[in-house]
Amino acid sequence: MPRTEFSPAIFSRPVYPGLISQGAVPAIMLAEGAGAEALIDLALADASVMDRAHVIYIPARGDSATGARLGQLGAKMYHEAPSYAACLERYRKALADAHMGSWLYLAGSEGLIAQAAAEATAAGLPADAILSEHRGPVTRRMQCVHCKGITEEVATDPFTCAHCGRSLFVRDHFSRRLGAFQGVAIDAETPGIVPEPRSIQR
């Protein structure tokens, strides 16, 4: 799956310029699903990037082949987890143990990159030591401004909040602190009148 190109019209959205090898330096690599392909491409371009890398991978459901390829790239440490939540403690420990000069490589969905980048900056990693590449679907991670619940993989506008059931308008505003876009009640002024959902554009 190729790297995703997003519309530049959403000014608050982070830029995902792609992964570029920093050589054989200490590194944490976190990828999910199609993001593994970005790490594989990175290692094929410069095998030394794996010499001191701690790789954490969240496979797509039913995909064991990609993880097997990723695990054979010669990383110093390699770990698979079923979800971001499941690998969070390991990821936090890797960040806490990281020395000055370490790099963070993130690849996968926008939701994963956003959450992992926010965690890294909160742990003290400089923003310019974080490299990211979006691979995968263009769905959004949304926060309901009313109940504060997070709905993952939103593909339509409006959408139904998974927590409070409100019909929400997808705002083109991205919160780096939350790692999510925000949704507001679409029928606040006209209760019950909700337009037909349409596919979210990039």
Overview of the molecule:
The protein has helices spanning 35-45, 65-71, 84-97, 110-122; strands spanning 27-32, 53-58, 77-80, 103-108, 130-134, 140-144, 150-154, 156-157, 159-160, 167-175, 180-185, 198-199. With 202 residues, it is α/β, with parallel strands linked by helices. It starts with 26 loop residues before the first strand and ends with a strand.
Count of alpha and pi helical runs: 4
What structural class do helix, strand and pairing data support?
A: alpha/beta
Give the overall form.
elongated
- Let me know the average pLDDT: 91
Radius of gyration: 18 Å
What does the largest sheet look like?
5 strands, parallel
Query: How far is the first residue's CA from the last residue's CA?
Result: 16 Å
Contiguous low-pLDDT stretches (5 residues minimum) are none
